[in-house]
From TrEMBL:
PANTHER family: METHYLTRANSFERASE N6AMT1 (PTHR45875:SF1). GO terms for molecular function: N-methyltransferase activity; nucleic acid binding; protein methyltransferase activity; S-adenosylmethionine-dependent methyltransferase activity. GO terms for biological process: methylation. This is Protein-(Glutamine-N5) methyltransferase, release factor-specific. Belongs to the eukaryotic/archaeal PrmC-related family. The keyword S-adenosyl-L-methionine applies. Residues 58-162 form the Methyltransferase small domain. The keyword rRNA-binding does not apply.
């Protein structure tokens, strides 16, 4: 039996209400949730938001009068919390934020959250990069991907437990890394020189060795791993391969 089968059923009910709390969402992400919109986050959302905020702040502090940084969030989910937390920390003229999700209902709810917060972000539906313009070049592409192996997610009844409208929220395919693999492959075409991908996973579902094996064929450079003690998630950063 995998460790996730033992740990998840105990931890999930405790965390359930915390993950949907508008008060906590405001505190953690600086995003207000409209009363009629259901938004939830997970530990990886928190880590990805923190990692991206730091990276964007560092990059902006070392830039002069240059064009805005271009950001793309893959899989914005119900509230685009990572993107909107970055928007909350930056001037609109310093960053341009795009975001996509394969689910039309999640795109709509993220648009509502952005508009409720008066944030300028551009969200649309796309299955990975299918509907992202091939001319687009991003300084950062970030993703909290679905990373639970299909059978594990079915055993844990994740779609019901998370109360979401489909498996795409969590289903990472047979080994948990299928969507991540496709994302890493396709992202290379959309990164500007010096640009990077940033993603997060939970090791109980996707161990470090499998993440590294998944990244290897795509030759990302200067791979960094961030594993804070205070969260059960890990973030990875990989820079655009040299052509
Ligand atoms: C784990 S959730 C993360 C949601 C949100 N970004 C967060 O951090 O809380 C994964 C998101 O990726 C989206 N997704 C899954 N497969 C996708 C694909 N092929 N293309 C675009 N989005 C996808 C899902 O619909 C879901 O919103």
């Amino acid at each position: 039996m995998r460790i996730s089968h033992l740990v998840y059923p105990i931890v999930q009910p405790i965390l359930r209400s915390l993950r949907r709390s508008p008060l906590l969402i405001r505190k953690i992400f600086d995003v207000r949730v409209p009363p009629d919109v259901a938004v939830q986050y997970d530990p990886t959302t928190v880590l990805l938001a923190r990692t991206m905020q730091d990276l964007v702040a560092q990059t902006l502090s070392s830039r002069g009068n240059e064009p805005p940084l271009r950001l793309l969030e893959m899989g914005i989910g119900q509230g685009a919390l990572v993107s909107l937390s970055i928007a909350a920390q930056t001037q609109p003229e310093a960053v341009r934020i795009d975001g996509v999700d394969c689910s039309p209902s999640r795109v709509n709810s993220s648009r509502e959250v952005a508009s409720f917060n008066g944030r300028d972000a551009h969200f649309w539906q796309s299955d990975l990069f299918t509907d992202v313009s091939p001319e687009s070049q991003y300084d950062f592409i970030f993703f909290n991907p679905p990373y639970v192996p299909t059978q594990t997610g079915r055993d844990l009844q994740l779609t019901q437990r998370l109360e979401v409208d489909g498996d795409q929220m969590w289903d990472g395919g047979e080994d948990g890394a299928s969507v991540l693999r496709e994302f890493l492959d396709q992202s290379r075409e959309y990164l500007s020189p010096g640009g990077c991908v940033v993603f997060g996973v939970q090791e109980i579902f996707l161990p470090d060795a499998l993440v590294r094996k998944t990244m290897e064929p795509f030759e990302y450079q200067r791979i960094e791993r961030q594993r804070p003690r205070w969260l059960p998630s890990t973030a990875y950063i990989g820079y655009r391969p040299t052509p």
